[in-house]
Write a structure and sequence with these properties.
Layout: E1 16-17, E2 39-41, E3 44-46, E4 49-54, E5 56-57, H1 58-62, H2 87-99, E6 103-107, H3 117-137, E7 142-144, E8 146-147, H4 153-165, E9 171-174, H5 189-198, E10 201-204, H6 213-216, H7 222-225, H8 227-241, H9 244-247, E11 252-255, H10 268-275, E12 298-300, H11 306-316, E13 321-322, H12 335-341, H13 347-362
Parallel strand pairs: 4-6, 6-7, 8-9, 9-10, 10-11, 11-12, 12-13
Antiparallel strand pairs: 1-5, 2-3
């Protein structure tokens, strides 16, 4: 393995690219800002953990062939192509210090679900190997969610097992569906069972819905602004209403972007089968009210306002919320301040959200 000094050179992760970290820091000051570490609550240091952060690896993207150009998100500061530069990792760590983040749990939003088995396997193998190298070189700063080929569940089971048992990764990042097919489908049951057996986390990171492209067209990037949280909402509701969480009660599911729209209107689902029983399946009898399942799911705190975080905690409990930023995409650049500005939180709540809950999930 490469040393820290040569980590991003050809001897190390030569195909690594940290999203927008190669930019000229358009969203940041040109000179380094002060480190905000360690984060303290009531004078005591707290290990802060960001469970929603991203990076990409160019050698894996290259395997997409003609589709490679559409892999990277169309956001501020993300170049079309990446070249391995030794300063990128240093810049990433500097930005984490400035944000008050001790550790990032990295992931890649799945772009390989439509590929054939061999190609998908190669993409995931490269990404997981790179994640494992990065984690090994900087164990106090980085952990990662593995990439798995969910369109081939038998392959995904082995990938997940290897990633957790052999490479030390924290679980897997999955989309909101697999090419429109919900995780509640029986064919994905072996993957969920494996995650439950391993006690690892499945991080749901949404994608948009192509069938709504015409409605989303126009101003405001609605395919993301509305489409991504809607995708998460649908994924979670399917896990609840199809009885998947009853069949896998030990499953650890983390939902990006505060769980989409679900926590804001969860109790509507409690009335659905009473109001319209003909739209509910009599053979599926849930063990709890639908809204109660939110208390066994986990959510990142990327809801942008103190009122949003207050409501999320009121709905799901402080024990179910972790920090998330989407870094280096500049959605949430002040995650620690966001937690402290929510005055309804107790010190114990803040400690839990800043890193305690994540440490428990990651078994740190």
């Amino acid at each position: 393995m490469a040393t820290r000094r040569g980590f991003l050179t050809a001897a190390g992760l030569g195909g690594m690219a940290f999203c927008s970290c190669g930019m000229l820091r358009a969203a940041h000051a040109q000179t380094p800002g002060p480190s905000k570490l360690p984060v303290r609550v009531a004078g005591q240091p707290v290990r802060s953990i960001d469970m929603h952060a991203h990076c990409y690896f160019q050698d894996a993207i290259d395997l997409m062939g003609a589709e490679a150009a559409s892999v990277l998100p169309p956001v501020k500061g993300v170049p079309e192509h990446f070249l391995a530069q030794p300063d990128r990792l240093a810049l990433r760590l500097q930005q984490m210090d400035e944000m008050g983040i001790d550790m990032e749990v990295l992931s890649i939003n799945p772009f390989w679900y439509g590929k054939d088995r061999e190609t998908a396997a190669k993409i995931c193998a490269l990404q997981n190997a790179h994640f494992a190298e990065l984690r090994a070189a900087y164990p106090q700063r980085f952990q990662a969610f593995a990439s798995i080929s969910l369109q081939f569940p038998d392959l995904a089971v082995k990938q997940l097992d290897d990633a957790v048992r052999k490479q030390g990764l924290a679980g897997a990042a999955i989309g909101g569906s697999v090419m429109g097919e919900s995780f509640s489908s029986p064919r994905f049951a072996p993957v969920l069972a494996k995650a439950e057996e391993l006690g690892c986390v499945l991080f749901i990171h949404p994608q948009t819905q192509p069938e709504l492209a015409k409605r989303y067209a126009g101003n405001g990037w609605l395919s993301n602004t509305i489409g991504n949280p809607l995708d998460t909402t649908i994924a979670l509701q399917k896990l609840i209403f199809d009885g998947t969480l009853d069949r896998h009660p030990g499953l650890k599911v983390l939902a990006a972007h505060g769980g989409g729209f679900l926590p804001s209107y969860a109790m509507r689902g409690d009335h659905a089968c009473f109001v319209s029983p003909q739209n509910c399946k009599p053979e599926i009898v849930l063990k709890k009210q639908p809204s109660e399942y939110l208390n066994q799911l986990y959510f990142d705190a990327m809801v942008f306002s103190a009122e949003g975080l207050r409501h999320l905690v009121a709905q799901v409990g402080a024990s179910q919320v972790v920090m998330g930023t989407d870094h280096p995409i500049p959605w949430e650049q002040h995650p620690v301040e966001h937690v402290f500005s929510t005055t309804t939180l107790s010190d114990a709540d803040r400690i839990a959200i800043l890193g305690g809950n994540a440490a428990r999930l990651l078994a740190l």
